[in-house]
Each structure stands twice: as structure tokens, then as C-alpha cells.
Write a structure and sequence with these properties.
Helix content: 25-40%
Number of strands: 14
CATH architecture of the largest domain: Sandwich
Strand content: 25-35%
Number of helices: 7
CATH topology of the largest domain: Immunoglobulin-like
Largest sheet: 5 strands, antiparallel
Structural class: alpha+beta
Order of helices and strands: HHEEHHEEHEEEEEEEEHEEH
């Protein structure tokens, strides 16, 4: 289908002009008898839609086609339709003196090569439904540009990810200017390392140039900790070519806080108060003295 559309024939000239010029090249000029060719071949005259003699031969060929009611091959038209087309070309030649009948916005009204003079006029169709301003309004050439994307550097798994985007619209036609975007299509995606889309949504306009969206925590709750990409696209028209910005966000695991241990209360054991009377040191001293006395008594008794 695409190949067919590219090969579709959209003629630069009305079909009767092609029909008559083919006749001049294949046969000869019906009025002048000239042998024509589309190229500058030796022994022939290269056909030209603007040369007077060629134009006269073209008119004569068209007149003969009209009289015969000739139908060109491979066309689905009636004889009356064909004769009307021939007559329209004859009338053009009579009015303008040449065969260059264009299908564009301008036409050659006067061609005077002797004086190097030519007049082009705009084709004004009174049935044309549009005013001149309509196309400058409809054919605005503009693009949306992302100035910045503001997201947290890291969030915990299960937390929301707020996304704030600043967008400027750059108008190039009809007036070159830049302005904070009030009209733009801002799409936000959360992607993993394999470029799989985990979430997508459209950011909403908050103020001129500022768009916001929140990636809900329910979309991050089941994700593993690690690096993810927030991808933002902004286009002036829906489906238009977007500006693209990618920003990384880190998801971290939620760490459960351990309860603070209650310090143990240690009660000191009561110290027994020493008994009243002699101290242990005194008692030991007395015992030592007694032992010494007993030893001396035994020694002297043994000596006698």
C-alpha cells in the first residue's frame, strides 16, 4: 500500500495536454507538419509548451480530438467529459497564448519572451473554504523541551516517587518565541535495568511550565532494592516527536528498627557488718603469740 501511494500519478498538466503532445511526437504537427520529439534528437524539433508554432499545433490537435470525441486509453470518462476537458485547454490557449497549464497555486498569465516578460498570478478559487489565517493557526511549528526533572535521589521500597517536570514550548512558526508550556503531553515511565516498563502515567499541568505526577508506592512495594530509571517524554502534540530525559532513582529496603534494650538493674548485696569485739587481725596475733610461748616452754623442758 505504501509503495502504491508513492507511485501514484499526480500530473503537472491536464491530461489533454499529455494526449495532444504525444500525438505531436508520435505523428507530427497537424498544422505545421513538424516532426517533434521530447528530446533534442537530430532531425527533429524538441517539443516546447511555450513556443508559438508548437502551441498552434497543440491547439489543432486538441480541436481534432474534440471533433472526434476521442477518449484516451485507460480512462474511465465519458465522451462529453473528454470533450469538456479538450475545450477547457483550447480556451486556455486562446486566453494565454501558451500550453503551460499548471495545477499549482500560481499560473502563467502572460508569457512574452521577446520582451523577457512574464506575469504569474495566484490562483484564487472562490469556493476555497479557508481564510489565509487558518493555516498559520493550524500549521504551528513548535516543540516541547524538558528543562528539568526533579525526583528524590532515593526512596524506600513501597514509598511514593514524586516527579516534577519543567517544560518550555519553543515556537518556531509563525512567530519565533519561547514560553512556559501550558499545552504539552508529558509521559512518565518507571523502568528497570532491562528497560521493562513497570509504571506509566501522564503528568498533569499544575502551573505554566510545571507538570507533576506521583508514582504510587503500590508500584514500588514489590520491587527489589536497586537502581531504577524514571523516563520522561514531552511532546507539543499528542503522538508528536518527544523530548526525552532519563533520571535514576535508588530503591532501598526498609530496615526494621530493633527495640532499645532496657538496662538491667543490679542491686548490690548487703555487706555484713563485722561483729563487735576483736578484729580478725588481733585474734591471729594472739594465736601466734600463744604458739610461740608453747614452743619455748617445750624447748626449755626438753633441755632439762
Amino acid at each position: 500500500m505504501q509503495t502504491t501511494s508513492l507511485s501514484a500519478f499526480w500530473p503537472d498538466l491536464p491530461w489533454p495536454i499529455y494526449e495532444a503532445s504525444d500525438y505531436l511526437v508520435a505523428i507530427h504537427g497537424p498544422k505545421s507538419g513538424t516532426d517533434y520529439d521530447y528530446s533534442d534528437r537530430e532531425g527533429t524539433t524538441q517539443f516546447d509548451l511555450l513556443v508559438d508554432m508548437h502551441v498552434e499545433d497543440m491547439r489543432e490537435a486538441l480541436q481534432r480530438f474534440w471533433q472526434k470525441g476521442q477518449l484516451p486509453p485507460a480512462t474511465d470518462i465519458t465522451v462529453d467529459e473528454a470533450k469538456a476537458a479538450y475545450q477547457a485547454c483550447i480556451d486556455w490557449i486562446d486566453a494565454h497564448g501558451h500550453c503551460f497549464i499548471s495545477n499549482g497555486p500560481f499560473y502563467m498569465d502572460i508569457y512574452d519572451p521577446a520582451n523577457m516578460y512574464c506575469v504569474l498570478k495566484a490562483f484564487r478559487d472562490p469556493t476555497y473554504p479557508f481564510e489565509p489565517e487558518v493555516w498559520t493557526e493550524r500549521l504551528t511549528l513548535a516543540r516541547s523541551v524538558i528543562d528539568s526533572v526533579d525526583i528524590p535521589a532515593s526512596v524506600k521500597v513501597g514509598d511514593d516517587i514524586p516527579v516534577k517536570v519543567k517544560v518550555t514550548n519553543k515556537i518556531e512558526y509563525p512567530d519565533a518565541r519561547e514560553e512556559p508550556a501550558e499545552v504539552a503531553y508529558v509521559d512518565v515511565y518507571l523502568k528497570d535495568a532491562s528497560d521493562n516498563v513497570l509504571y506509566s502515567g501522564k503528568a498533569a499541568l499544575k502551573t505554566a511550565g510545571n507538570f507533576e505526577i506521583t508514582i504510587p508506592g503500590s508500584k514500588t512495594a514489590n520491587l527489589s532494592a536497586g537502581a531504577y530509571t524514571v523516563e520522561v517524554k514531552a511532546a507539543y502534540k499528542e503522538g508528536g516527536y518527544p523530548d526525552l530525559r532519563k533520571t535514576q532513582v535508588i530503591l532501598s529496603q526498609v530496615t526494621e528498627e530493633s527495640p532499645t534494650p532496657t538496662p538491667a538493674v543490679t542491686t548490690a548485696a548487703p555487706t555484713e557488718a563485722p561483729e563487735e569485739g576483736m578484729s580478725t587481725t588481733t585474734i591471729v596475733g594472739i594465736v601466734v603469740v600463744i604458739i610461740i610461748i608453747v614452743a619455748l616452754v617445750y624447748f626449755f623442758t626438753k633441755k632439762k
